[in-house]
Design goal:
Length: 465
């Protein structure tokens, strides 16, 4: 909807805006091009450490990595405030899929910066929110899902919180929820209860009883499938009509980047449907990163999707649900939907996903995954005790370092960080190192450079100390 009678359109059509956009884009490209991987600038090391100490005091705990960004970057490269430049392979745990300082994105953001407010929310949403919601629903339903509605929110935990509220209101009288072992749903009071990490909720009162089910085990596929179905059946019989739904990550994120074949999920979803238990696909981390925009589309589970959540790389998060689950007014509401810049960025990312050659067996995500896997397997051939698979799926890349202990994973992560690659941990028993690379801008050279550093770190004698 555009009209020259609107002041907003007159502003965006002003030639000064176009000129400023051109100048800013050129300046960004020129200065970003100066970046290359390097260590810290010596004279900045001491003040940088003082900033880290002050920040740790202010927030109550030190940062996991000594990371304070300067605000400059280029693709996979990011500059820190100590002058060092590193390869970012975790991207804010999957948020910055477009890379750092993407010059293609900047022109899209200028209208958002010129918009009348910084934030959009419950009472005042601009046209961007409408257009984004339409894009999301269209993308979610392109292969036959019936997700009629989409509620926007500012965080993945809130999207999941909203989803669980929708499920409980739909199944009045229900009091429990089903989830996989090693599930991660967020850190709010409710989602923290679903997250299978008891240490994260020490001192917190019980909110919702969660019945955990073992996930698929690739080493014993038939037995583990039957085990899952039998345990679900047992819970459903023990607590008849008590479950609001089953929340499931189709690729376990924090659990270690493990997935399962379509047949496993079909058997599970069919069992749930027979018992009238809604299926909730948590795609906060998987969205955009598998071999289809949604993991449920990759696995052809569209018919089973009752509730779906997305987040992280989408910038603004969302809860999708079928018409029959549409909640009563007042259940879902929040002051902030998100910032206008985040909403505009989300629309740009969705266009890239639809228009680019990212998906399918020959898509860019499959190519990126295979390039990492080839290098991982080459390192494994040299030193099988230093790196082991499985290697994850699509743009969710992982490996088990050394003996798979938490201490070993932490040692490798910090050695990688010092060498110039930022990654993160996932899973337990074994603990794994994970990459969530900026696949919308990642180059083949960046992949090779990262793997060169990884090989150097893993083969280093210092890891034995």
């Amino acid at each position: 909807m555009e009209s020259k009678s609107l002041i907003a359109q007159q502003l965006l059509s002003d030639p000064r805006v176009a000129q400023a956009t051109e100048l800013l884009t050129a300046a960004l490209a020129e200065h970003s091009a100066k970046l290359s991987a390097r260590g810290p600038i010596p004279e900045l090391t001491e003040p940088y450490q003082k900033w880290l100490d002050v920040f740790a005091q202010l927030r109550g705990n030190a940062l996991f990595f000594p990371y304070l960004g300067s605000g400059a970057g280029q693709g996979a490269l990011v500059e820190l405030a100590d002058g060092s430049v590193k390869y970012d392979m975790i991207t804010g745990i999957g948020v910055h899929a477009m890379g750092h300082a993407n010059t293609d994105l900047l022109p899209e953001l200028i209208p958002a910066v010129l918009s009348d407010t910084v934030m959009q929310g419950n009472l005042q949403q601009n046209t961007e929110s409408l257009l984004l919601s339409k894009q999301l629903v269209t993308l979610a339903n392109q292969h036959g899902a019936s997700l009629n509605h989409c509620f926007l929110s500012s965080s993945g935990a809130m999207a999941n919180e909203n989803a669980i509220k929708v499920l409980f209101q739909h199944k009045v009288g229900s009091s429990r929820i089903l989830a996989f072992q090693n599930a991660f749903a967020g850190r709010t009071h409710l989602t923290g209860q679903v997250t299978d990490r008891p240490k994260n909720r020490v001192g917190q009162p019980l909110t919702v009883p969660v019945d955990y089910v073992p996930f698929f085990d690739a080493s014993r596929p038939e037995e583990s499938t039957q085990e899952t179905l039998q345990i679900v059946e047992r819970y459903l019989q023990r607590y008849p009509d008590a479950h609001c739904g089953f929340i499931m990550e189709l690729v376990q994120g924090e659990g270690g980047y493990y997935s399962a074949p379509r047949e496993y999920f079909v058997s599970l979803c069919e069992l749930l449907k027979r018992h009238k238990v809604p299926v909730f696909f948590d795609e906060i981390q998987t969205f955009g990163r598998t071999y289809a925009p949604f993991a449920f589309q990759m696995l052809e589970l569209d018919e089973f999707a009752d509730v779906v959540t997305v987040g992280k790389m989408s910038q603004i998060c969302a809860t999708f649900f079928r018409q029959e689950l549409n909640p009563k007014p007042g259940l879902l509401s929040q002051t902030f939907t998100s910032s206008t810049t985040a909403i505009v960025t989300a629309r740009w990312i969705l266009r890239k996903l639809v228009e680019g050659n990212f998906y399918g067996p020959q898509g860019r995500i499959a190519d990126i995954h295979s390039r990492f896997v080839r290098r991982f397997e080459a390192i494994h051939a040299k030193a099988p005790d230093r790196i082991q698979g499985p290697w994850g799926i699509g743009g969710m890349i992982a490996f088990t370092p050394l003996d798979g202990s938490a201490d070993a994973a932490k040692k490798v992560l910090h050695a990688l960080y010092e060498a110039g690659v930022i990654a993160f941990v996932a899973g337990a028993g074994p603990a794994r190192v994970r990459f969530l690379p900026p696949f919308l801008s990642l180059t083949d050279d960046e992949i090779e450079n990262v793997c060169d550093i990884l090989e150097s770190v893993l083969l280093s004698p210092e890891l034995n100390s």
